[in-house]
């Protein structure tokens, strides 16, 4: 679920509010997105993929994590490279090669083509 | 807000975007209304998918068609398979050329077009739809259809949840591309898929088909969402005590996993992948590794607990019944595409998850968009008297007491998510589940009245109750095991039941062999 909105990194572009398919965000009074409906989050990572500032972190758990969790430790997420890692992997962002162009996976059967998704 | 258009497309995933593109190419004005955001909504955008993309080589096409006929219980149709292969080949090439999707190149220099990264695919489809002049309404769930005096579909009404206002679209024809139903199981990208299209269609009298093929379950690490299953082909499954779970597997043997999960944990390691495969897997499916990287698990060496999440008719094959090559339904002016429609025509009763459903979404979306545009053009632009078709949740027959929508959803989930009810099916269990579901229906039909923003969740709950009842009514009529519709109490295939099952109805749910008299 969405667990972190970094106030330090957010550029208040409203993109996450716009793209979330289950509408979990609202715009806060200071312009930053607020997670108003976390229980509606479907853990699809789309907000992270679409955040141009790498300001969001979605934990893989489909239930909320406690306050002391790693998912709320911004410094830890930055240090370990987890913040912004999905965007990096799919090659979204300035100067990156789209991951789709590099997506040559293994073939699941000897005669089959490589998986590319 | 009220709009008037030739074609209204309901949904925002692959089938919806292809329908919108092809309707616009025919010169139709098009409105696309999505519950979420066109570009991120739906299973494909998050998950990504293989595509049933087979070059027009006779041998390759023959192999592609014959490979899964038996698995599907011989309910697929060769003519439909051939035309889906043709259409998909053309459209995927169009996506590469006009859409500039960055397909990779194989080690020998050949271009590879047999799969799509979800976020990249749907971001490009959104751009294409906008360029084609389609009016896109995001965060605009449709809550009911509008019909004219003759019963033809003439538009839809809904609620714009970010704008906080109702909306209405008057249309010459409507394409339903709302996806299947995964009952809010939190399977990857599936929580927008609550079966809304099937409800909207049935309220105008449309029929469904193959609703017994609705018990797909995807493997995910425990307490997480990513139900991408291809790489579990490299897995060994273990019991809690470390012993290998015999007979368990991703393709065959998922029921062994389900059975074991009823009484304990199942663990897994992708220990059959060598170094080269491991490196390649990361390139092919970066989203598969999100879970592991964030939890600090090395899936190739560390055993991790798994679960099975219901994917209902998203990876199942049941949906709105199609009656012609343009993906018309039995109701004039109403078309169905993608997972909202039955995929039995190309999958029979075996899961269409992955490449077949992707090919179906592309093909059926394109056909439905073109035919809807033609229907609208033939109709002309004269104003029609319309009436709203929505029933349960909007216009209760009695409205005497409050209905707790959260409780209704909980009731449906209790009957469709458990493995020992929906996956490992038995007639006695299905009948008892159906009694609970019928009770839930009576409650929403007689008393649930939602207004404003709350219509969205109320109608989702109603759609799920209806979906579950068509599923189990059809499953009870199939007194045998065929495709994914297996029955513990009837484990064999019965040649006398080699037919599709049509279903429908709301207050009175019915199911009968396709073509049989009502």
UniProtKB/TrEMBL annotation, chain A:
Assigned keywords, A-Z: 4Fe-4S, Iron, Iron-sulfur, Metal-binding
Keyword Ubl conjugation listed: no
Pfam families xref list: Fer4_9 (PF13187)
GO MF, one example: 4 iron, 4 sulfur cluster binding
SUPFAM superfamilies: 4Fe-4S ferredoxins
4Fe-4S ferredoxin-type domain span: 1-30, 31-61
InterPro entries: 4Fe4S_Fe-S-bd, 4Fe4S_Fe_S_CS, Fe-S_Ferredoxin
Record-linked PANTHER family: ADENYLYLSULFATE REDUCTASE, BETA SUBUNIT, FERREDOXIN III
Name of the featured protein: NAD-dependent dihydropyrimidine dehydrogenase, PreA subunit
Source organism (scientific name): Lentzea jiangxiensis
Automatic annotation (TrEMBL), chain B:
InterPro entries (UniProt xref): FAD-dep_OxRdtase_2_FAD-bd (IPR003953), FAD/NAD-bd_sf (IPR036188), Fum_R/Succ_DH_flav-like_C_sf (IPR037099), NadB (IPR005288)
One matching Pfam family: FAD_binding_2
Domain FAD-dependent oxidoreductase 2 FAD-binding: 6-213
One annotated GO molecular function: L-aspartate oxidase activity
Catalysed conversion reaction: L-aspartate + O2 = iminosuccinate + H2O2
Keywords: FAD, Flavoprotein, Oxidoreductase
Cofactor(s) the record lists: FAD
The keyword Plastid is assigned to this record: no
Superkingdom classification of source: Bacteria
A biological process from GO: NAD+ biosynthetic process
Function statement: Catalyzes the oxidation of L-aspartate to iminoaspartate, the first step in the de novo biosynthesis of NAD(+).
Protein name in the entry: L-aspartate oxidase
């Amino acid at each position: 679920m969405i667990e972190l909105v970094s106030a330090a990194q957010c550029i208040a572009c409203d993109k996450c509010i716009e793209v979330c398919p289950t509408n979990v965000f609202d715009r806060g009074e200071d312009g930053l997105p607020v997670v108003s409906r976390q229980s509606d989050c479907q853990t699809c990572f789309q907000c992270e993929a679409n955040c141009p500032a790498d300001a969001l972190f979605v934990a893989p758990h489909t239930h909320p994590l406690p306050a002391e969790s790693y998912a709320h430790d911004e410094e830890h997420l930055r240090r370990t490279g987890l913040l912004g890692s999905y965007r990096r992997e799919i090659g979204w962002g300035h100067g990156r090669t789209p991951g789709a162009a590099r997506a040559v996976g293994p073939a699941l059967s000897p005669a089959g083509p490589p998986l590319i998704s | 807000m009220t709009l008037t258009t030739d074609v209204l497309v309901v949904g925002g995933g692959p089938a919806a975007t292809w329908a919108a593109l092809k309707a616009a190419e025919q010169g139709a004005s098009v409105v696309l209304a999505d519950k979420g955001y066109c570009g991120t909504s739906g299973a494909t955008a998050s998950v990504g998918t293989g595509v049933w993309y087979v070059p027009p080589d006779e041998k390759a096409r023959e192999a592609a068609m014959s490979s899964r006929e038996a698995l599907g219980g011989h309910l697929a149709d060769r003519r439909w398979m051939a035309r889906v292969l043709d259409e998909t080949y053309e459209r995927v090439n169009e996506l590469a050329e006009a859409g500039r999707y960055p397909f990779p190149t194989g080690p020998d220099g050949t271009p590879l077009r047999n799969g799509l990264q979800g976020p990249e695919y749907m971001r490009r489809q959104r751009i294409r739809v906008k360029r084609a002049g389609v009016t896109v309404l995001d965060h605009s769930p449709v809550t009911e259809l509008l019909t004219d005096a003759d019963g033809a579909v003439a538009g839809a009404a809904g609620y714009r949840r970010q704008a906080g206002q109702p909306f209405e679209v008057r249309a010459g024809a409507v394409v339903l591309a709302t996806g299947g139903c995964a009952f809010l199981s939190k399977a990857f990208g599936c929580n927008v898929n609550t079966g809304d299209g099937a409800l909207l269609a049935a309220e105008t009298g449309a029929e469904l088909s193959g609703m017994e093929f609705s018990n797909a379950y995807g493997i995910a690490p425990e307490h997480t969402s990513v139900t991408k299953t291809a790489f579990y082909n490299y897995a060994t499954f273990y019991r809690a005590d470390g012993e290998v779970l015999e007979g368990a597997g991703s393709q065959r043997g998922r029921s062994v996993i389900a059975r074991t999960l009823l009484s304990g944990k199942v663990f897994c390691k992708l220990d059959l992948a060598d170094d080269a495969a491991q490196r390649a897997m990361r390139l092919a499916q970066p989203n598969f590794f999100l879970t592991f990287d964030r939890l600090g698990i090395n899936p190739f060496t560390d055993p991790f607990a798994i679960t099975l999440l219901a994917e209902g008719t998203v990876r199942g094959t049941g949906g709105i019944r199609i009656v012609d090559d343009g993906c018309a339904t039995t109701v004039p002016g109403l078309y169905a595409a993608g997972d909202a429609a039955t995929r039995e025509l190309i999958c029979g009763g075996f899961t269409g998850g992955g490449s077949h459903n992707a090919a179906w979404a592309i093909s059926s979306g394109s056909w439905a968009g073109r035919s809807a545009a033609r229907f609208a053009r033939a109709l002309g632009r004269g104003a029609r008297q319309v009436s709203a078709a929505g029933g349960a949740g909007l216009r209760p027959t009695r409205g005497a007491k409050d209905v707790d929508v959260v409780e209704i959803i909980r009731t449906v989930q209790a009957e469709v998510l458990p493995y020992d009810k929906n996956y490992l099916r038995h007639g006695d269990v299905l009948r008892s589940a159906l009694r609970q579901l019928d009770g839930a229906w009576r409650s929403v039909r007689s008393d649930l009245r939602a207004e404003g923003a709350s219509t969205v969740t109320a109608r989702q709950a109603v759609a799920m109750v209806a979906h579950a009842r068509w599923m189990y009514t059809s499953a009870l009529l199939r007194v045998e095991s065929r495709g994914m519709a297996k029955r513990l109490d009837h484990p064999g295939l019965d040649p006398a039941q080699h037919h599709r099952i049509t279903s429908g109805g709301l207050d009175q749910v019915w199911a009968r062999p396709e073509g049989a008299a009502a």
